[in-house]
């Protein structure tokens, strides 16, 4: 247990300890990403408007779908996905480029576990994540006074949370790391998504999950790509 202080209140935050954790990094190469984007953009119904699809967001959609399947959350129950967005350009009074500090908000998407694990899982994930990002137009700080209690309420739900960002460009640091990891994810349960060391346009997805789930995740990850 760790203590986090928010203003006047002090709240305990549960951190997990896994029975037999395994840490792994999965790589989406640039060509994997291109194929996934294509699959997301070729919508079965041409009347539907195409999804916007950044490299980061396609990695998120894919990780979410593989997670849902590996965890066997494929049932008619709401599952969640959350990641941070940079608010600097999204607030009413834009913040100068030289501002050095955090200015982020959480984005929460939700969908039915059954739909995400189904044949059109990637489209379902896209619908949910694009919808949540669209929602930011209403004001990135909307409802900020309720963020803390609503985050706390989601802690007991089936949620995938992203740690990291490809914008951090961790491999560009001048000491040239061979491998980067977000070490806290074994306790926070988050999923790391960042850029790839070996290839511009590729993505790394880092996980710490029980050994028993890792092989399922790995096989979904690889199978789905073959069919992409
Ligand atoms: C699910 O997402 C939609 C669209 O962003 C939102 O209107 C709805 O309140 C969310 N539902 C839950 C249970 O979080």
From TrEMBL:
Origin superkingdom: Eukaryota
MF GO annotations: acyltransferase activity, transferring groups other than amino-acyl groups
Statement: the UniProt record of this protein carries the keyword Transferase: yes
InterPro entries assigned: CAT-like_dom_sf (IPR023213), Plant_metabolite_acyltrans (IPR051504)
One Pfam short name: Transferase
Provenance organism: Cinnamomum micranthum f. kanehirae
PANTHER family, sorted: PTHR31625
Keywords, alphabetical: Acyltransferase, Transferase
Keyword Transmembrane helix part of the UniProt annotation: no
Name by which UniProt lists this protein: Coumaroyl-CoA:anthocyanidin 3-O-glucoside-6''-O-coumaroyltransferase 1-like protein
